[in-house]
Amino acid sequence: MEKGTHHPPAVATIGFFDGVHRGHRFLIRQVQREAAARGLASSVITFPIHPRQVLQSDYRPRLLTTPPEKLQLLEQTGIGQCILLDFTPNLSGLSARDFMEVLKRRYRIAALVIGYDHRFGHNRCEGFDDYARHGRELGIEVLPAEACRLEDGTAVSSSLVRRLLSEGDVAQANRCLGYTYFIYGNVVGGHRVGHRLGYPTANLQPGHPDKLVPANGVYAVEVEVGGERHGGMLNIGRRPTIGNGDDRSIEVHIFDFDRDIYGQPLRLEFVRRIRPERKFASIDELAAQLRRDSKEIRALLDNRTAPVKTDNL
User: Fold this and answer.
1) I need a surface site. Which of 70, 121, 180, 248 has the fewest CB within 10 A?
2) Average pLDDT for runs of 10 along the chain of length 313
3) Angle between helices 158-166 and 170-177 (to 10 degrees)
4) Residue 44 near residue 3, CB atoms below 8 Å
């Protein structure tokens, strides 16, 4: 991963790459193949923050990956270099041709792999044929990206993954991502409702305010804490049966675990949503449902198979 000033001649692609999902990895593998065929380096050009945050100061993205998480996932693809491009107001005002000239002059991009529906430049009115024409004038070979779809024809995109997570369909989101969706955070003080019900929980404060938290409900999760992995039962929501506040909490009961982890970092991996959050008629009814949830989640995790691998595309 690079942010320096020296760059070898390279085949590159450009984008925000939120989530580094299966579609992104399919595109990156094409860049790597084209680079190998030409004896050039392979590059991804991306941005440390969402470009819309530069143009709209009040814009808050719902991120699938924080900046460090994105860079780590990009590194795992084996890409030769990752160029972090600061998206400034000046950069946002460049035409597509002027932007491509920056790529050629500053980053020595010899070939650019882009999709037919990809748009860049100030007014976004130009398309692939225009970029190819600019490329011929600037000495950048513009290559069309191959289409990427899952086995059932689904076109994977970051917006699709966000929608699936917002609906609670983490299983399908994981299939699109090619890995299990995760959230990092620190364990903070909670309402201690779980202790009263026989299911003590760790209350998670996400480490990044823009990280997307899936829909309210009860989830089967894998928990990583203190270098160990455990299964867990997670609730996201506002505890309507208890009625002790309207704040949204992320509370996980870690199976077969009895240690004080207050203040410690924790990683949640979302496997499947079991049910939506709902209000029960009594505390006893809620406790009975939690027993059923726990039994179902333990069985699911015991029989869990690995998520779809990105290399299957």
Assistant:
1) 248
2) 68 96 96 98 93 79 95 96 89 90 95 83 79 96 90 91 97 97 91 68 93 97 95 91 78 92 95 94 90 96 67 49
3) 160
4) no
Tell which residue, 284, 281, 214, 280, has the closest CA to residue 252: 214
Burial class (CB in 10 A: 0-12, 13-18, 19+), 20: buried
Q: Which amino acid is at 312?
A: N
For 57, 225, 233, 252, the CA distances from 297, given in Å and listed in that order, are: 42, 19, 7, 12
Torsion of CA 145, 147, 151, 156, to 10 degrees: 80
Instruction: Write the CA distances from 40 to 9, 106, 111, 139, 205, integer angstroms.
Output: 6, 16, 9, 15, 44
| Amino acid sitting at position 308 | V
Under DSSP, is residue 84 helix (H, G, I), strand (E, B) or coil?
strand
Q: Diameter of the chain by CA atoms?
A: 73
Work out the end-to-end distance of the chain between its first and last CA atoms, rounded to an integer number of angstroms.
Answer: 24
The two structure tokens encoding residue 213: 């938290």
Q: Say which amino acid occupies 244.
A: N
- Label each residue of 176-203 as H, E or C: HHCCCCEEEEEEECCCCHHHHHCCCCEE
Ramachandran bin of 249, using left for φ above 0, alpha for ψ from -120 to 50, beta for the remaining angles: beta
- Whether the CB-CB separation of 46 and 14 falls below 8 Å is answered with yes
Q: How far is CA 206 from CA 61, 114, 202, in A?
A: 15, 34, 12
